[in-house]
Amino acid sequence: MFRRTGLLATGAAAVLVLAACGGGTEAAGPAAPAAPAAPAGGPLDLAGAGCPATVVFQQDWQPEAEHGAMYSVVGPDYTIDAAAKSVKGSLVAQGVDTGVDVEVRPGGPNNGFQPVPALMALDDSITLGAVNTDAALTATGNQAVVAVTSQMTVSPQIIMWDPASHPGATTIQQAAADGSPVVTSGDVLPALLTAKGAMAATQSDTSYEGTPARFVADPKILQQGFATAEPYIYENEISQWNKPIAFQKVADYGYSIYPEPLAVRADRLDALRGCLTRLVPIMQQAQIDYLKNPATTNALIVELVNSYQTGWSYSEGVANFSAKAQVEQGFVTNDPASGVFGQFDPARMQSIVDTFVPILQQQGSLPGPAPTASSLYTNEFIDPAIKMGTP
After folding, report:
1. Could you say which architecture CATH assigns to the domain 3-153+259-376?
2. What is the dihedral of CA 260, 264, 265, 271, to 10 degrees?
3. What is the predicted pLDDT for the residue at 390?
4. Per the database record, which ranges form the UPF0033 domain (predicted)?
């Protein structure tokens, strides 16, 4: 039970649950009356905008609250395919039926841990995928993707530690000063933290497999995680721990990627342009609306986890904690440069390229020419009127 995000893998669950794979399709049934149809030709009419009959969203991991916007537009007429690991229903936005269906597919173990750009290259039916910016840097050729709107503004990736084992430490650098191992599942984070002077290269341990076992047994180590999951899980759901952890965001050390922005395959951008003109603003607003009232969507997320039976454990408590933390800890905000929600900052994109291309090249993850910053995103479809905090 571990989470992959971009080029990194992280733990976002407490206990490995052994379960047989489910099978067949189960109908969840209408949970509410059918939504009224969107006015023809209006901004919520996706059927009239050239969108596919089914808009397919591809996630990079199991259902969780960090993906809330995608699940929030799944209408009450949804059905769950436990064998294929997907949920499908009418695409309902702002209370109206947009005229098309939506299908949300999880990633990670559900598709052999294939990167989202690789899945998108193999399957033309995928409309948008969740692709971290560092992962987009390595997706070239027929796997190249273009981000069209962010959903989270700041990465919730953290390094965590036991406060009792590192007394007084309030930063990663302070906690790591005693030489303790920094345990991750990939080498991008330790490379970045080493370059920033937060740890020594000799402290890097990339053996993290996503369970809490080692941290519980050896609380001297530092370990990767998510601010939107591990603080709640370790304190409330791991009986061998059941106490707070300390942590710091890796973003404080330059982990400046956009986490899981919605991206389209680069060679399909023109064909989907009409659809994206209406779909992108819908997804901008969907994230804002979800975080204002996450309960219904969180219930769906937990239902999906229970139906898929992949060994992933995710409680309603974690989902509610995550939705709250996304806002209160500043992971979901308006773009600081423009004040628009979901918009990309060109200067930040250039900084991401400048920071991560040398790391990826050194590690052999980017053997060819580096993409330009401008090729990684577009603000063409962003509605500048959509902002958090507006009625």
Report:
1. 3-Layer(aba) Sandwich (3.40)
2. 180
3. 73
4. 44-68
Q: How far apart are alpha carbons 34 and 47 in whole angstroms?
A: 17
Sign of the alpha-carbon torsion through 202, 252, 314, 125: negative
b or e along 94-114 (b: 16 or more beta carbons within 10 Å of the residue's beta carbon)?
eebbbbbbbbbbbbbbbbeeb
Burial state string for 163-177 with b = 16 or more CB within 10 A and e = fewer than 16: bebbeebeebbebbe
Q: Which of left, alpha, beta for 220 (phi over 0: left; psi -120 to 50: alpha)?
A: alpha
pLDDT of residue 32: 61
Mapping DSSP to helix (H, G, I), strand (E, B) and coil, where does residue 133 land?
helix
Distance (Å, rounded) from C-alpha 330 to C-alpha 324?
10
Contact status, residue 10 vs residue 225, Cβ threshold 8 Å: yes
Encoded tokens for 194: 């080493």
Distances (CA, A) of 316 to 30, 300, 302, 303, 323: 21, 10, 6, 9, 11
User: Are the C-beta atoms of 149 and 256 separated by less than 8 Å?
Assistant: no
Query: Cα–Cα distance between 125 and 109 in angstroms, integer?
Result: 20
pTM exceeding 0.85: yes
- In whole angstroms, how large is the CA radius of gyration of the chain? 20
- Distance, in Å, from the CA atom of 326 to the CA atom of 249, rounded to the nearest integer, reads 13
Q: Which helix (H) or strand (E) holds 357?
A: helix 346-363
CA gap 210, 14 in Å, rounded: 9
